[in-house]
Specification:
It is a single chain. By secondary structure, the chain is of the alpha/beta class. It is built from 11 helices and 11 strands. β10 (256-263) and β11 form a beta hairpin. The longest helix is centred in the last third of the chain and has 20 residues, at 294-313. It starts with a strand and ends in a 5-residue tail after the last helix. 35% of the residues are buried.
């Protein structure tokens, strides 16, 4: 394992060097919060941010992505034939991605990159990215990531993990892509003999600060129908208004819709984020909707996150404990409460 010392005084200059080889993406202020955005020339990431309302999943799974273009003009060559939109050129570096968001991308990768199906649009976005993570020294009260197979200093899905150690960042080099980025930025100074202990001490302190937990050790042992027909759903989900905030804020939601948009004779086929929380999501052409009521759609979301995914992949929950949905739900529905309720439920009692 290689640890690199990066003086904060040289951080900005290093990013400007890296910009010659990478498109930089990082956290920037937005009203009362932050968002991940492409950094314009001279713009630098705000590394003092706490969290973002939306995760950076859009770097691999854009909120709206043009897939194909076409023309309906019969006088033009290749009319009525879909033309794939070329992949964007060049490498990207996602600066300051939190460890739980990097883990979330790995969970969604199971859907977009597996033995049965490989989504070329998702994969080409993923492959051009280098993920430069930023450890969380002071987790929020809604952070329960250590219960979800990740944590404030987790490394899965990252190429570099940056640890804020006061006047310096200690960079843990995790992959060759990470090393290549640090070389491009001119960061190569050895962190010294005490760096590993500093990282471990900060990690232990951060993990100890997370007191919010969920339990799911019993969920996989219950049948789908036992949980599906459980009597607690209407009570737990009574206040849900199906606004969809949780699905858009969630870093592991992957539902999408594909639409054709035509203006004149020019057309484009676009993939957009969708939400299982909307009535239209399951509305049949016949007019029938198998999830007619709000609570049924909310049940679907939690069953997917906490049961269906768990059973299908045997890779833990489809949740990384970032706490975004807990903080942003206008009805105060808490996934931690739902998960613990499902785990404790005993059918027939």
């Amino acid at each position: 394992m290689t640890l690199i010392r990066i003086a904060k005084a040289s951080w900005d200059g290093g990013l400007e060097k890296a910009r010659k080889a990478y498109e930089l993406i990082g956290p920037v202020p937005e009203k009362d919060s932050h968002k991940y955005a492409v950094l314009a020339e001279g713009q630098l990431p705000d590394m003092g941010f706490k969290n973002t309302k939306l995760s950076p999943k859009w770097v691999v799974f854009p909120q709206s992505e043009a897939m194909f273009t076409y023309t309906l003009d019969g006088t033009k060559e290749n009319h009525h034939i879909l033309q794939e939109v070329p992949a964007a050129p060049g490498a990207r570096a996602v600066i300051g991605i939190r460890p739980y968001d990097a883990k979330a991308i790995q969970l969604t990768k199971m859907n977009f990159d597996n033995k049965d199906y490989k989504d070329p649009f998702w994969l080409r976005n993923y492959e051009r990215c280098t993920f430069v993570g930023l450890a969380i020294n002071a987790p929020s009260a809604t952070d329960f990531s250590t219960s979800c197979g990740t944590g404030p200093f987790a490394e899965e899905g990252l190429d570099v993990l940056l640890v804020d150690a006061g006047e310096v960042y200690i960079a843990k080099v995790l992959t060759e892509k990470g090393k290549k980025f640090l070389d491009a930025a001119g960061f190569g100074e050895d962190a010294g003999a005490d760096a590993a202990k500093t990282v471990e001490d900060l990690k232990a302190k951060a993990e100890a600060a997370i007191t919010s937990k969920v339990s799911y050790n019993k969920i996989q042992g219950k049948t789908i129908m036992d949980l599906y027909d459980a009597p607690f759903w209407k009570d737990v989900l009574f206040g849900c208004i199906n606004c969809g905030t949780c699905t858009y804020a969630c870093p592991t939601c992957w539902c999408f819709d594909i639409q054709d948009e035509v203006k004149g004779t020019d057309g484009v086929r676009v993939r957009n984020w969708d939400s299982c929380m909307t009535a239209l999501f399951t509305h049949h052409a016949s007019g029938h909707n198998p999830r007619e009521h709000e609570w049924e759609r909310t049940r679907q979301r939690f069953m997917h996150k906490l049961k269906y995914f768990l059973d299908k992949y045997d890779a833990g929950l489809m949740c990384v404990g970032c706490g975004r949905c807990v903080e942003q739900c206008p009805a105060n529905i808490d996934i931690r409460t739902v998960c613990n309720t499902m785990n404790a439920f005993e059918p027939g009692k």
